[in-house]
Design goal:
The protein has 1330 residues and is of the alpha/beta class. It contains 62 helices and 18 strands. It is globular, with a radius of gyration of 42 Å.
Amino acid sequence: MSNVCWIDLTNWIALATHHERKWIQDINGGRDHNKSLPVQVAPTNSTHQHFELNVVTLTYVQRCVKVSLLLLGRLTRDYKCHDTDAEPDMIDGMSLKDEDISVHNLVVEILCPVDHGKGDQDFVDIEICSERCTMNGVQLEMNQMQSILDSSNKVEFVQPMKDRRLTKRSFIKSRHQYLQQLGLVFFQLFCRGEPIRKSSHRTQDYYSAVAASDTAEVPRTNNEDDISSASKLMRMMSLDEFKKSLLDARVPASICRLVTDLIHSGKYDEETSFRSFADVLDELQDIISGRPHVLLYDRTTPTLGCTSSKERIDFGNIVYGREVETNRILELAALQHEFLKNRLILISGNGGEGKTFMIEGVKNHLVTLCGWAYVGIKFDRLMHNSPLSAISSAFDQFFSSLLSRRDQEPYVTAITMSLQLHLSPSMTVLLCHLIPSLRRLFPTLMSRVVSNDDLKSLKEDSAEDKNLEIHSDPESSRNRLHYSIRRLVHAISSFGRPLLFVFDDLQWAGRASLDLLTSLMVECDAVHFEENAPIARVMFVGLYRSDEVDQDHVLSKRYFPIFNSTGTVEVHSIQLREITKEACNSMISCALRLPVRLTRSLADIVHAKALGNVFYVKMFLESLVINKTLWYSLTDKRWMWNLESVRATPIAENVAQLMKRNLQTLPEATLWALKLLSCFGSKADEPTLLLLTDHVDIINALVDAIDRNIVEKQGKFYKFAHDILEQSAYDMMSRQEQSNSHLLIGSELIKNAVESNWSHVRPLTFVAIDQINRAKVLGNTQLSYSVQYATLNLKAAQKSMSVSDFASALSYAEHGISFLADHLWDGSNYSLALRLYETASTACFTSSQGDKMRCFLDEVFEHAQSLRDKLHSYLLLIETLGAVGKDGEAIDSAFALLGELGEILPQDLPRSLIQHEVFSIKSALSTYTDDDIKNPPRVTDWNISARMRVIGSVIPFLFNLRPHYIPFLACRIVKLSIQHGFCSDSAFGLMAYANPLLNSDIDEAYRWGKLSLLLHEGFEAKDKHPRLKCQVYGFLAFFCEPLQAVIDVLRINHADCLLAGDAYYACISISFYTRFCTLCGHNLTDLEKECTLFATQMTRLHQHELCLTYAGVSEVITELSGSPTIPYSLMPGLNIMTEEEHMERLLSEGKSAALQVGYFNCLFLDFWFKRYENAAVWAEKYRNRGQRRFLDVYHSFYEGLNAFQLARQSPDKRWIEVGECAIALFQKWVKHSVWNFENKLLLLQAELNFLKGFKVDAINTYQASIKSAQDHRFVNEHGLALELLASLYKQYGDTNQAKLHLTCSRKCYKQWGALGIIELRTPAKDCLAE
């Protein structure tokens, strides 16, 4: 059993030294006691035995440091150094004297492993003779000695412990004397207690000396007379002798420096002196636990055998001065598991403030310690080598790293299964071509794809075969790509592994990248619908330079408002400013491997000159090394400097100028290599650089730049250590030199890598053509290759379009046009020019640059030689006009184009002509069986196919302004198909033809709607199939299929539309979905949350007209639920805040279809809030339209119920007629769907019976309606039937039944989430009680 006791510090030193000596002898003899060490030290390059000896010494040092800290803790707790002439302080009631701070007046508390026989809290004696060590006569084994030393727990002064008479001595009055006495204690402690002599004759090899003598005794200083005062001892030994004694004892340089500075405190430079015991304690703790990798295991420490004469500063990977910001980010990350929203952290700061370095530290913490996934994207200031290359490269690097680890196989499997579930095979293949490492997840699928070029040729063949089809919608391509990458991010961030997604240097990101990143952050997709789906948790971090992002920057004008207004991501902003003097000192201290006490004066000067900019501080120190103002001293084994010279060093006006000054000191070959490398941007791969070896040996020339920390080698890439270095190297060239360098690189790359096959666009092709384009912008080109350069630009533009990088596509197309110059439309260049202009105009359309697009279109309209060559541009113009709300102009342009194609439309379209066309088509189709529609003849005439495509493109714009043309044009498509053959557009004609049939034959309309889907499937036009499905299930299926089943289809179709890239019909699908959910009683609180997400999505997809319509149904939901949210406020840029303002605008624009939707919203709300007279007005305004749609059913239902309410209050018989008319309609509709219409018909009949006084029949019919609504899951109509039945009971005086049914009604409304109407029907206090 161990007992607490005390041991003199001299005895403790003797015991520790004896244990160290025995351990060294055991290692030399083969025995090993290295099983339980207080520290862990990495082996050096020496032998294993020498490594063990180093560990032994460091163990002794660690134990001494522990005792030193205990002593300092005692001193700082009760005593502070005072200046001269101050009154002496007290320790435990006694004055502190110089003899008190000495090894003889100090004792150490230990746990004694043997029975010392003197009871607790007593002293023990240690005796060491030759090989034996005894404690109170009991011999100690090695493990017992180790236990005693490791148990050291407290240091005390002897005087309070022993009752002995003090010698009369003068008090110490100078704080330096206190510190000198402390230094002497430390000196003897670390030098193993040997007596101090004027000349030290230690042998250099301490280990050899100990091992040479088995009988050597450890020197002891048991006699008080051996300890001289500080002044005497300092006269005996010089500073160099103290240093030599400590170094010979294998003491680390940092501790050696601390001890010698204590001993000579106040004698030399005040900068090296300590000010108090607390300063000593702070520095010692910094050495042993704060920064041991810098100060204890120092490369200059002789123990580690590593001294370096190379003057190179190592700043390490520690982030200084960003503790508050780092902790804030980590706090947000820690809460990510509990938070339902993703987060976006925007970190701003000037260049060089350490944004990237800080987030790298955060990444290391989250990935290593918390198991996060990480994807990092860095955008380049100068070049964009291929479309979305930064994003593609980031994901490729993530999966390459993931697939190289066996322990990640379950995670990889989960990602694979998620992608297989949510992505079609074709979309998976395209994603694999964007991210090559993904191919390993789908080996079976990819084995069916012969090559990249095969996949590419499929797209090119379909685009170039203009006989049958027109170009696919590029907007659809973008939306399809965005959806697939969102699903990829969702897969990565699910399964219990959050994702840290970092976008570095956002100020240089292209429009395509920013649109994709916005989509990743704000889109919701079908993930929010999936039950039991793993939740995707992503913490987005965007870094950007605040000095380059002003109010006019695209981030400020467009993207930041989107981020802040979305409901799908929580935004936090962090701004980095200059670091403090203290942080600067810590950074310099770490870099120079010196205590902060010694670097404080230097840091103050550097901080002032560098303005606290982290990168500037580093570069300024590098410049001091270059100028020899800061140097490494081999004699002192530390960095040295001259403060006056540092103060005199001129400061550059900015970081870039300082970089240039530093770069100019490099060898000429290295500087030229850096200039060429800067032409590529921030990095370039080695194979590409090797293609330039005919002109310069760039690889060897970069070695010196790597050695100077200007360039880093990361795998096959050479990368500038910082963007400012890249910018500085590039700016060192004149404009002419820049132009020549770009031209040289581009020409060489084309000659070596592209010349053999111009038809394929590879990543290197983008590098080459980017270089050529930049050379041309700078005023240099080779005109003899202009057609080749224009062709390459066209290929690059088309490739950019295929991956939805429309900004790059437009840039490439414009460059291609510029290379053709005045010979644009010459015979040999005609086809090339036409394709360049088509590509440019399409890119403008998808990037919302209408004015620029119109210029390109006008060029085509002026120079194209045939209508066939103009058709793509005409279709683009029609779609553009419709997208910006100019429906009338879109219709006029389409009708004019149809006229040029030979399809003359009547200006006056009487109803009789429409009926004749419908009857004619019905008669013609009567001979077609279902099999005939599934396998029809195909159209072969380009003109006919073009007519059907133009008619199909204009039909969506007819709903508001000319709805009577829709059935007529639908019949024209069907007629052309019957006469000339079918195409994919024929299916849309059949669907449009089926819609007017709802007025006469619902079953026939439903049949042709379903057949249109089968017909479309036969043409394999998968990108348009969700669009057709939206129309069938939004307009037709409701009349025959259960409404809840239709909702499920529309929910899935929303995701399918996004997967197909069809933003318009994705928004239409979700509008139908939200409306149907509201009408059939889905929970309104959940719907309101979804509305917020989908409104954000519509805004981002630029569907502004649909946003307004969707805001109307959102307002219905918020009013019913009692929410204070204003839906129109969620959609920035609409300038409309209420439904009334919206309807006024629609009325002024003559958009009748959208206006009737607004009328229905008002009818619906006024009925539920019992504003029956207002509801009747809106119901009347809704009437008088030709086409039938699902809102007509609910209009009839609520108009009928509202009329019966008014009939009870008014003798006007027309209200009964309105109600009976509604009953007649539902009697017809219920034959096609009992599920959807039975409860509504029964409720209308019950109201009529109640009105006529047929009490029993009314009660029975109410109860039948209640049961039908409950069986068919219409909770809102279930509650309504209960409420109306309660009204009957109340009128007939049965208050108990009335209360019972009203209570049940409220429960249904509560399940519906309609708190707004509950409050209307029940006083607030009753609602709370309930």
